[in-house]
């Protein structure tokens, strides 16, 4: 059986030894030289002089180390295999669970069971799974360090730190939204009606007032930064959730997690 090329060559000076690796090793021992660095295919054991030629071979032959558990494709790393299984087969490999769509498996992979609580409120340090959770926490006035914060005050803060209107809409003359509160006069005989807007009926006056206090009938304050999307949002939490979904490709999920803290951190100026 003939010797492989790397058994016949000195890796330092390039001298060749047709008789094989014994002569090569004697040469290396006498001179202090080293055998050549060898790059072997993960599957067929073919050897290459460079990493690039090894990679090109494995890519062409589908010989990478990590094989998809749903098809015949192979990948250079475990991370790339899991990414492929999630994107193309809707599979969570860790849970051994399949989903109906790429969106569903992405939502699952970004849930607390997989990523824990990695995003902290920049004001009170309470931990949340995603940036959307932190944003709702602050925007709703639930943060004990920002009880005066609401949709309007947070928009004022964001707009001050977003002079070019990357995500905040430039509303000339805007001084906050009007507040509405219904009374018993809203009873229409069968329920409490949202008379001035949508005419939807509610079983209780409290439910109607919760509806009126929500942003549902308020002006949009934010927009998606992607010019291809430009979708409007009434609350910052809605915009952050949209960006986290990666539906329009405006921003990667990880970038949203890192960016929302710096965006909201300006809230300290209002404290």
UniProtKB/TrEMBL annotation:
<keyword id="KW-0863">Zinc-finger</keyword>
<keyword id="KW-0677">Repeat</keyword>
<dbReference type="InterPro" id="IPR036236">
    <property type="entry name" value="Znf_C2H2_sf"/>
</dbReference>
<dbReference type="InterPro" id="IPR013087">
    <property type="entry name" value="Znf_C2H2_type"/>
</dbReference>
<dbReference type="Pfam" id="PF12874">
    <property type="entry name" value="zf-met"/>
</dbReference>
<feature type="domain" description="C2H2-type">
    <location>
        <begin position="90"/>
        <end position="119"/>
    </location>
</feature>
<dbReference type="Pfam" id="PF13912">
    <property type="entry name" value="zf-C2H2_6"/>
</dbReference>
<protein>
    <recommendedName>
        <fullName>C2H2-type domain-containing protein</fullName>
    </recommendedName>
</protein>
<feature type="domain" description="C2H2-type">
    <location>
        <begin position="192"/>
        <end position="217"/>
    </location>
</feature>
<feature type="domain" description="C2H2-type">
    <location>
        <begin position="39"/>
        <end position="68"/>
    </location>
</feature>
<keyword id="KW-0479">Metal-binding</keyword>
<dbReference type="GO" id="GO:0008270">
    <property type="term" value="F:zinc ion binding"/>
</dbReference>
<keyword id="KW-0862">Zinc</keyword>
């Amino acid at each position: 059986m003939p010797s492989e090329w790397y058994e016949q060559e000195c890796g330092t000076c390039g001298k060749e030894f047709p008789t094989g690796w014994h002569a090569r090793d004697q040469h290396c021992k006498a001179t202090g030289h080293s055998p050549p660095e060898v790059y072997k295919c993960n599957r067929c054991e073919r050897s290459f002089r460079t990493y690039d030629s090894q990679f090109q071979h494995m890519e062409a032959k589908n010989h990478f180390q990590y094989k998809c558990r749903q098809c015949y494709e192979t990948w250079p790393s475990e991370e790339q295999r899991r990414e492929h299984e999630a994107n193309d087969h809707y599979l969570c490999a860790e849970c051994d669970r399949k989903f109906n769509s790429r969106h569903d498996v992405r939502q699952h992979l970004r849930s607390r069971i997989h990523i824990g609580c990695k995003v902290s409120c920049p004001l009170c340090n309470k931990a949340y799974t995603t940036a959307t959770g932190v944003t709702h926490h602050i925007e709703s006035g639930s943060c004990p360090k920002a009880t005066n914060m609401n949709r309007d005050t947070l928009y004022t803060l964001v707009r001050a730190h977003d002079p070019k209107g990357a995500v905040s809409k430039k509303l000339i003359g805007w001084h906050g939204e009007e507040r509405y509160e219904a009374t018993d006069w809203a009873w229409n005989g069968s329920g409490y009606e949202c008379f001035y807007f949508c005419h939807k009926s509610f079983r209780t006056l409290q439910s109607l007032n919760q509806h009126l206090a929500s942003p549902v009938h308020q002006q949009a304050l934010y927009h998606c930064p992607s010019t291809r999307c430009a979708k409007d949002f009434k609350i910052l939490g809605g915009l952050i959730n949209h960006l986290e979904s990666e539906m329009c490709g405006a921003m990667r999920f990880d970038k949203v997690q890192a960016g929302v803290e710096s965006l909201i951190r300006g809230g300290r100026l209002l404290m």
